[in-house]
Specification:
- The protein has 306 residues and is of the alpha/beta class.
- The chain has two domains: 135 residues, Aspartate/ornithine carbamoyltransferase (Rossmann fold, 3-Layer(aba) Sandwich), CATH 3.40.50; 137 residues, 3-Layer(aba) Sandwich (Rossmann fold).
- It is built from twelve helices and nine strands.
- The strands form two sheets. A five-stranded parallel sheet has the order 7-6-5-8-9.
- Strand 6, helix 7 and strand 7 form a beta-alpha-beta unit.
- Helix 1 crosses helix 12.
- The longest helix is centred in the last third of the chain and has 23 residues.
- The two termini are 12 Å apart.
- It binds phosphoric acid mono(formamide)ester (CP) and norvaline.
């Protein structure tokens, strides 16, 4: 059996992605599972804070009967310069899978290169693949058809947006983004998405044009973790991209609004919209746990490493 990692969405095939999302929906609906990972341990190494990703992964592993160990970067020898490649080989002897949240995507790639257990990206500067999959799960749960809906991203072309681009490309649905000039997703990624999957990805600098008749509206913070130094400029540039009542009037009346959270009320989204009837953010946050259960099952069973 081949060792599988999930460090970007494109590590999965289209069929595997739908299998994981459908399994997550089934777990959530039926609330039935065996405690089949008793004695198995999930390690979590986080360089940045987390509420949802950390706790939903820990809960997911515990629901399967397993355990989770949270390791803050500063408590590991990593913080004193022990190489990633050494940490990866040592951790592989202690735990059965690991979730990493790092500043740099390369750190996760390096870890995966030396690990002999599945490695999961719990967010990096480039991607947040688990988020995109649980977001798609939420879209489906809310009865939206991926292939006949206008699914849009308004705001920063950041890590979450880039994982959405990969998901749209892989699954084959159209995706529309409105980002300020210079804050679009990586052009190389967009080129690759087109080349590999012939995807229709529309990018504009005009949020009003993109949100028009949208069925699904997604946004995220203007200042991601690690970008605090750019805060002032970003607050200014992103202003017209706020999801507020006025902008939402242009979307379809039954549109849903997603935000991966944490939200900055009054910046990328207003309090009124976040707490309003179109917002699905609490279900979206819950779905991370179900998706992570399905993902852990998929990765642990596909490698049968224990
Ligand atoms: N959405 C998300 O990843 O949240 P956390 O930063 O709390 O994990
Ligand atoms: N784009 C945000 C997502 C937080 C879950 C960040 O990287 O900080």
């Amino acid at each position: 059996m081949k060792l599988r990692h999930f460090i970007r969405v494109w590590n999965l095939s289209k069929e595997e992605t739908f299998k994981i999302i459908n399994r997550a929906l089934e777990l959530k609906k039926n609330k039935k599972w065996e405690r089949k990972f008793v004695g198995k341990i999930l390690g979590l190494i986080f360089e940045k804070p987390s509420t949802r990703t950390r706790i939903s992964f820990e809960s997911a592993m515990i629901k399967w009967g397993g355990s989770a160990i949270y390791l803050s970067y500063k408590d590991l020898q990593l913080s004193r310069g022990e190489p990633i490649k050494d940490t990866a080989r040592v951790l592989s002897r202690y735990v059965q899978a690991v979730v990493l949240r790092t500043y740099k995507q390369e750190t996760i790639e390096e870890f995966a290169k030396y690990a002999s257990i599945p490695v999961i990206n719990g967010l990096s500067d480039r991607y947040h693949p688990c988020q995109a999959l649980s977001d798609v799960m939420t879209v489906l749960e809310k009865g939206k058809d991926l292939f006949n809906s206008k699914i849009v991203w308004i705001g920063d072309g950041n890590n979450v947006a880039q994982s959405w681009v990969e998901t749209a490309a892989l699954l084959g649905f159209k995706f529309y983004l409105a980002c300020p000039p210079g804050f679009e997703p990586d052009p190389e990624l967009l080129k690759e998405a087109k080349k590999r999957y012939k995807t229709e990805i529309t990018i504009s600098n005009d949020p009003k044009e993109i949100i028009k008749d949208a069925d699904v509206i997604n946004t995220d913070v203007w200042v991601s973790m690690g970008q605090e130094g750019e805060s002032e400029e970003r607050q200014r540039v992103f202003k017209p991209f706020q999801i507020n009542k006025e902008l939402l009037k242009l979307a379809k009346p039954d549109a849903i609004v997603l935000h991966c959270l944490p939200a900055h009320r009054g910046e990328e989204i207003t309090e009124e919209v976040l707490e309003g009837s179109k917002s699905v953010v609490w279900n979206q946050a819950e779905n991370k746990m179900w998706l992570h259960m399905a993902l852990l099952e998929f990765l642990l069973e596909s490698v049968k490493i224990f």
